[in-house]
């Protein structure tokens, strides 16, 4: 992200933006730049951009990303591995990366076959529940009793968004309040900790998330890279956080 964000977000798309309440959503940035940047990263690591995300090779680390299907407004899990009896969506590495990165209003949806897909933030901006479901499908398909099998659960956020009042203006309510409600992460976190309270109490569940400094930094604001680094360093240097990192390392 640090290396690519200025390439992707430096210049808004030349397409005319339509901002009326009943207008079609137009992306602000060129999606081809995102695709090209992802292809470059993949190639630099010795892979081919046309390689399948799930190439049927068994690896030690299983990876999945979340995207949202336009047609049914449901979360899709795009996997680098197979789960018996689960419908698999064949995608390339590039398609999976673009699909999970295609933030609505920032970038165009991605076409995977005949389907349209956008980033999973509108349904799984904090994907802990998706991780829980995926782990259950992988390790305890018959019982779904996952907790006894989990030694350590780690959740990493992108910064606490802070608390904001609901907008009274209709346009601002639609453009600001609704997306904030749809992409909330901290409420998901509170509910998840309540459900996994024993793991949290026994220092087997960890949530790392910068608490202050990034409330007003948007996805496309690459100019704020210095602030992002400063807030991250401040967070990591807090003594309480150092103890949490130590406990997490010892658990792993």
UniProtKB/TrEMBL annotation:
Any one GO molecular function term: calcium-independent phospholipase A2 activity
Any single GO CC term annotated in Swiss-Prot or TrEMBL for this entry: membrane
Entry keyword Lipid metabolism: yes
InterPro entries, per the entry: Acyl_Trfase/lysoPLipase
SUPFAM superfamilies: FabD/lysophospholipase-like (SSF52151)
Keyword Hydrolase carried by entry: yes
Keywords: Hydrolase, Lipid degradation, Lipid metabolism
GO BP of this protein: arachidonate metabolic process; lipid catabolic process
Protein name (Swiss-Prot/TrEMBL): PNPLA domain-containing protein
Lineage: Eukaryota, Fungi, Dikarya, Ascomycota, Pezizomycotina
